[in-house]
Amino acid sequence: SVSSQSRCRTFKVLVIGDSGVGKTCLTHRLCAGQFPSRVEATIGVDFRERPLDVDGEILKLQLWDTAGQERFRKSMVQHYYRNVHAVLFIYDVTYPASFSGLVSWIEECRQNSVGQKIPRFLVGNKSDLRDPRTTEGQVSQAQAMSFAKAHGMMFFETSAKNPPIKRVNGQRGDGEDSYQL
Ligand code: GDP
Ligand code: MG
């Protein structure tokens, strides 16, 4: 008979966005439970996994932490999008260029997922660095929400560094745990 271990289903999530927005820290936080003490630049793709309890069924959450280098990406990009269950588009809330940069990542996703309907999430990371006294030089939540709406995405702001991971729109869950993937 098949053991429960081998039946464990994998939930593949692709983590996309400009260099430096915190993809590696965020995936590390989600899988290891803490902000990494030091990170090295990602080359190609790194995989991080953790069990994920969905209504009593244990899935294997597999995060694909990607990097943008052209020469690696071109040959790999089709593998990234193959059998993917969700895509997280990450930007840095304190670095508007990383928000504008998402347009090309969304286009890459579109080109590589023709005929698939993949749930996509807009994630504004480094919320701990937001300056509450000004919106200057930052991506506002209103701006991000309208972008998410226009592209049919859910929107979250996160911090890989400081808890809690907050959900900004969509339905409220039972508490923090609901958002810690
Ligand atoms: P990646 O290129 O998208 O993988 O970005 P990294 O995960 O390597 O992070 C880039 C830099 O941003 C590093 O110096 C991290 O320490 C920092 N960083 C990442 N996430 C956060 C966050 O949520 N808050 C703060 N304050 N710094 C972060
Ligand atoms: Mg990285």
Automatic annotation (TrEMBL):
It comes from the Eukaryota. One of its GO terms (molecular function) is GTPase activity. The keyword Ligase does not apply. Keywords: GTP-binding, Nucleotide-binding. Belongs to the small GTPase superfamily. Rab family. This is Ras-related protein Rab-33B.
